[in-house]
Task: structure prediction
Amino acid sequence: MPRVRYIEPDGREVTLELAPRQSLMRAAMDAGLTGIEAQCGGNCICATCHCYVEPAWLDKLKPPSDDEQLMLDNVAAERRPNSRLCCQLIIEDALDGLTVRFPDRQS
Amino acid sequence: MPIVIVGAGQAGIQIAESLRQEGYGGALILCGEEPHAPYQRPPLSKKWLIDGGTVSALALRGPAAIERLKISMKLNSRVRAIDRNRRALDLADGTRIAYDKLAIATGSLPRALPVPGASLPGVLALRGIEDSLTIGAAIKRCAAEGQRIVIVGGGFIGLEVAAAARKLGAEVTVLEGLPRLMSRVTAPVVSEAFTRLHRQHGVQLVFEAQVVEIVGHEGRVAGVRTAQGQEYAAGCVVVGIGVTPDDWLAGSAGLRCERGIVVDDCSRTSDPLIVAAGDCTARRLADGELVRLESVQNAIEQGKSAAAALMGRSRPFVNAPWFWSDQYDVKLQMVGLSRGYDQVVTRGDLAKPAFSAFYFRAGRLLAVDSLNRISDHMQAKRLLDHGLWPTPEQAADLQFELPSLLKSSRPATADEA
Result:
């Protein structure tokens, strides 16, 4: 099962095994990571599951949808070129080892 | 002695998690009446109702998280009374739990229809997972047997269930007591867009319909009768006429309640050892007004405030409230409270629909409802949180960039239009 490394705002690292087709948001919420809020539960309407993708992985991800782009323009923390919403990142085998970092605030 | 949280919903789990983040290392007990660990309620009238799915897909936190947070979960536990003198809870099963401090997050209960026949089998309301499963099964049965679903109430829940029922192939009638949909929270221009949307999808909408009786046949629901003398045949009836805060436990213990447990902006109740958060509360604003919110954001923000208050810190809930609803392919997002508005301007395409309604009072922005206008919603949220707003003319002008106001970082005035 593909593994994802999450870096919490305080620098703590947590590696999780994700189930097939699981979103990075769902796995982080199930594990109780603190750097994510996911207030809307994965509907791409609240922008509180913002993460920074380790740049090396960026072009291996499906590009953000128009809706996600609009949300990313309005995240609470700094928007960077590697900003994504975890609820829109669905795991696949090719993403084994993906690393994401949570910003210091989500709302 | 532990901190005890009564109510294992969105606010309850937030209080528990935030307490750990605030550095609380002591014992923590979370009591819930339902058999389920904390789960998301919004999908129960939306995607989950349509697609079905596992209960674990709704979980707010997984078992691993609950273990890591060292939360002692007491599910299937109804708290019968709070003994504030002895600082203890009496549970329905006869056990007694002592507490050091207490948090109440008991949520809200669907308002019952006060008419004869309302308790007939087949008359359904939505609160929990089992209700959603029951409604989903009833919709599918009605679709298969060619019977109509009658929904009482044209608010969020009623309309989301209507959309789900159409998607599942059932015929749907919505009976609304007032002259338009969602009239308590939106302007006519938004109601009209949703009226068109539901009619396009084949929903029969009836306005100013006062339900006087649920008609039964052979021991189960058969129809709904209105004061106008109409009878609407029904294979099942879904009642969505709002909720009442579940403040019974708090009220019985002598905590101040006024249509909800009265709390300040830091979620403190009238007892210094007790906080409350979420749907069960009524928050006292600085000007003395009480505001009741029923939303995920409110549960989360008040939950954070409550945890901080239990640790002796002040973390007021100050952000603009926001809400959302999904109906068919329309995403409705609302920020702010529009009550008391004197002007509404729209931005975007009403027919599509892809527009936002901006509500003003004396030229100051109160709230924005967005239909398939995600960026308007997100930008308005940031503006309201910063105490900024466009003029009505700027709001209506699609060429005007709302984020430009954040750069100038001061409120616009009417003569700048």
